[in-house]
């Protein structure tokens, strides 16, 4: 069937699977019918400017947005290494302003560092009558308690907002209590960088009476005596909790409609205690996922102590009624076993990262067929250190759904059994360790690259080779477009690329296809060489060693001079800015 013979409704549905720029590239101007569907009928444009070249972003600004501004329902902006200063660039447009996107339903901002820009965005949000989703991630903005209170007041005043994710490192972790503003629309709240006490949680719920899902961090002092009232609307709770078990129990006693509970605890609650809490207070609970880490009172009779743990989770309630199973690991940080801790967690492992480099001495499980529960499909981020999976216990774990992998080279022969699939891997961080045979590391790294068709970012840290061969030599990957060499230590020293090495990098297979580069170079001329010779490079974040110790003046003035010099050398379409978090960093959005 010919595409143009499809009914309008089907074509409009198909449009939803294309990005904004793809829609105009593929369908604009083909015929009057498609033009009408695109410019008048289609009402679900998503303006996602992340990970785009400066040229494409400017093309969208000038050619597309003005004609569809009332059809855009979501905006995604980022100031990360890929698109530095993109948010400020968008907000400073003269031909249209943020408040003109009147049909906006969702706005997502990431990597913002400027409080004034954040204030402006949140203020503009009050102009969007259909806004239901607000996401702020990986932002670092210094705020006082009064600033935070004003910030949350503005969000709670958005009358249609249902979903709010605010991941802002404000240097003051404590949640600031709301004002009399009450949000009856807000149902999903994710605030990982704010700490709640029981009293502040009570205040939050008082001002968010229809809250269903909460994901956050609790720190409850042992002497806190806050009386909580039942919170009937909350059905999903995902928390990190630091405090005594009876404080957690008091919290859960007031969530009678809880359907899903996921918690990371620094305290141990045995199976009998959990069973009592759930039976008395959580009658509707269907999904129970927990991880508890604690220090045992002594290091004697490890077998007996773990048996006591698993026995408390072997009752009919756990095994037959709910089929909730747990596993416990006894860890030590060294061979002398001077410091020990125990992890108790439900299986399959339900948390998104596994970052454990200590020695596992003993493990127990309530799962009859434990092999079935050694799969870790929820883990998206894994650190595979040289000693991470050498013991016979953790070497049986399987991670087949990873998106981010940190791996020490050379890895042992168990690596490809523990991580057998790389088809979803997006970023890879590699490093070497001392006192290892390093002759095979280039080959091992290439083996991973060959099995990772979606790998986008490759980052190097410490690297050591007896033959001084740089890590990029000969490496190939069809998918890698981002190289991070900014924290690269080579044979024990901060590595900087001189003119010869910049030439080698620009001619290497990975360098030729690189679009985003983070690197340390010897001097400012090396920066120009990279920009002029890496034809696919669109964004560069760079340190120049010559500017670490300026002969005259401060580092700040030296960096100002470097920015000015780069502006004089580069096309006027390029953007050059100093990093707001790194005294030596320069962002260049090239093309």
From TrEMBL:
Gene3D superfamilies attached to this UniProt entry: Ribonuclease Inhibitor
Residue ranges constituting the F-box domain according to the UniProt record: 1-45
Source organism per UniProt: Rotaria sordida
Name the record gives this protein: F-box domain-containing protein
Signal peptide location: none
Superkingdom to which the source organism belongs: Eukaryota
InterPro entries in the cross-refs: F-box_dom, LRR_dom_sf
